[in-house]
Write a structure and sequence with these properties.
The complex is a heterodimer of chains A (259) and B (289). Chain A is mainly α and 259 residues long. Chain A is globular, with a radius of gyration of 20 Å. By secondary structure, chain B is an all-alpha fold. Chain B contains 15 helices and no strands. Classes of the chains: A mainly alpha (259), B mainly alpha (289).
Chain lengths: 259, 289
């Protein structure tokens, strides 16, 4: 277990040494603050559009950090050949995969926490209202969703040739699931066979990441999701993350490490 | 001979400056594009393409009005009149019907059923001054497409009736009128503001009569938008009735009857006025009592 945490620690250090997070955070903060300063009909109490914009930026930034950070982990180790001394430590390939996964996931979680603190300060200062439990659920569910995204990116990174292609593929897949995934059943109903069956199969096979998106509940002050539903969603995310990690390990343990 | 790079750079800068002095007056003279003359940042950035976004922003106002409970493009529902528009027209029945409408239907499978625990699944409308949250989207829609008249009428309605900000509503309508000088819809809404908020009968009457004039000048409106004519004449009739100008009130009610879906109700009002006129001893029935 210590090996896994040691590997994870390196990834977390990498996050704060690189500029990705800082650039995304400054961009998010700048856009949100500028949006919040706009005067609409001399009404300073208008706040939901600021929350909406900020949450959208947080989601985009978190996905970028998760996918980009994860996509370059294994290719970078192979390219710099640091993977050879690392695996000779001895570190098993399974531990290597788990270390990278937990490192990326925790790093994303830290970034997410900073983003949400900023969000709470900005919106709270404007509407004098801090629904901490709703924020806690939002951050937890988003982080659980990012576990699936990180595991998926790790799997893609051992299949594709370069981090850029991994990033592109993962972004398309995740954005596709978030935007269309939950509606595939509706679309399937209006399709002829065999398209209907194909759509339904995809619908049941994909991880439904859109469940974890409770931005609307935060923006429109709709209150909490049931705690049991949160637990079930977390187990669902854990199951998919586990599946992707298993596939990554199966692929990686037979993979030649020479570039 | 080898030229110094500094000299080449100086020559290029001089050429750029000279060209700019020649081109700039043409660009701003209106021979190139209207975009450079615009004082609107969206117009400057997107040109006429910004109108594409206006509808989306107007829809966003409706999404906010429903607190996020809104059909997506995948729900394949016929797009009816938006709730923010029906609210301005005082169609309470439609609003009630809309509240009952459930575009989600029953869950089709366990994924759908479980997923609904995380979504907004209740049809509500903003109330208790929370309606202010739709205003940024209406402001953006107006900036994106200044010719979209609904934006001004809807924005003004919520500003004056729900948020008690008649001056902001008037300013928004005036802006709409500057961009659409022939809009009878904006004039009608402006008249409502003068009548219902300012209780300024004379200004309301003048504005509604102008609205009627503009409506009559618009062949498309005369053909397709008889409802607007009914609305203006009905409001004029009520205004004259309240002012005690009964002959005028009867005239406007009779005009409204021609396009009303319920002419009998208007006839009843005419009869009531006639009764009052008959009960008056003065021969000048047209004057206020």
């Amino acid at each position: 277990m210590n090996t896994i945490w040691a590997l994870a620690g390196i990834v977390i250090k990498e996050l704060y040494r690189r500029k990705d997070f800082y650039v995304l955070f400054v961009l998010t903060a700048l856009i949100t603050i500028v949006a919040g300063m706009v005067n609409f009909f001399n009404d300073p109490k208008i706040v939901r559009y600021v929350k909406d914009i900020c949450m959208l930026l947080i989601w985009i930034s978190a996905l970028l950090i998760a996918i980009v950070t994860t996509a370059r982990q294994i290719p970078a180790e192979r390219e710099s050949r640091t993977i050879f001394p690392l695996l000779a430590k001895p570190v098993t390939r399974g531990q290597f995969i788990l270390g990278k996964f937990f490192g990326c996931w925790l790093a994303t979680g830290i970034a997410l926490l900073v983003f949400y603190v900023f969000f709470a300060i900005i919106t709270g200062s404007r509407e004098q209202y801090w629904p901490w439990l709703t924020y806690l659920q939002a951050i937890w569910l988003q982080w659980a969703m990012l576990a699936v995204v990180v595991a998926l990116s790790l799997l893609a990174s051992i299949i594709t040739a370069a981090p850029s292609s991994t990033t592109t593929i993962c972004f398309i897949a995740v954005a596709g699931i978030l935007l269309v995934g939950g509606h595939l059943n509706t679309v399937a109903l209006h399709q002829p066979q065999p398209l209907q069956t194909i759509f339904y199969t995809i619908y049941f096979l994909i991880p439904h990441l859109e469940w974890f998106d409770i931005r609307d509940r935060v923006v429109y002050d709709w209150g909490l999701v049931g705690w049991l539903d949160c637990v079930l969603a977390t187990l669902y995310a854990a199951a998919f993350s586990g599946l992707f990690l298993l596939l990554t390990w199966l692929g990686f343990r037979r993979k030649s490490l020479n570039t | 001979m080898k030229a110094s790079p500094y000299l080449v750079l100086a020559l290029a800068l001089t050429a750029c400056f000279t060209l700019a002095t020649g081109i700039e007056p043409r660009a701003h003279g209106g021979t190139w594009s209207n975009r450079v003359k615009s004082d609107n940042v969206f117009s400057l950035l997107f040109g006429d393409g910004r109108r594409l976004f206006a509808n989306q922003f107007f829809t966003m106002a409706d999404v906010y009005f429903h607190s996020g409970y809104y059909p997506s493009i995948f729900d394949l529902r016929d797009e009816g009149t938006k709730a923010i528009v029906t609210a301005t027209q005082g169609q309470a029945e439609n609003e009630e019907e809309e509240r009952k409408a459930d575009f989600l239907g029953k869950p089709t499978d366990w994924v759908d059923r479980f997923g609904r625990n995380f979504r907004i699944t209740e049809h509500t409308h903003l109330e208790h001054t929370q309606e202010r949250e739709i205003l940024p989207w209406l402001r953006l829609a107006a900036d994106m497409d200044p010719q979209k008249i609904e934006t001004y009428t809807v924005g003004s309605f919520f500003l004056r009736t729900h948020l008690n900000r008649p001056r902001e509503a008037e300013a928004f309508l005036r802006e709409g009128l500057r961009n659409n000088p022939n809009s009878y819809e904006i004039l009608f809404e402006l008249g409502r503001l003068y009548d219902e908020n300012d209780h300024d009968t004379d200004r309301a009457r003048n504005v509604w009569e102008l609205a009627l004039y503009k409506w009559a000048k618009d062949p498309e409106a005369v053909k397709d938008n008889k409802r607007a004519f009914g609305g203006i004449t009905d409001h004029l009739a009520q205004l004259e009735r309240e002012a005690g100008n009964w002959q005028q009130a009867i005239k406007w009610f009779q005009a409204a009857q021609k396009v009303s879906p319920d002419p009998n109700a208007l006839q009843q009002r005419i009869n009531e006025i006639k009764k009052k006129m008959a009960a008056q001893p003065s021969p000048a029935n047209d004057q206020p009592p």
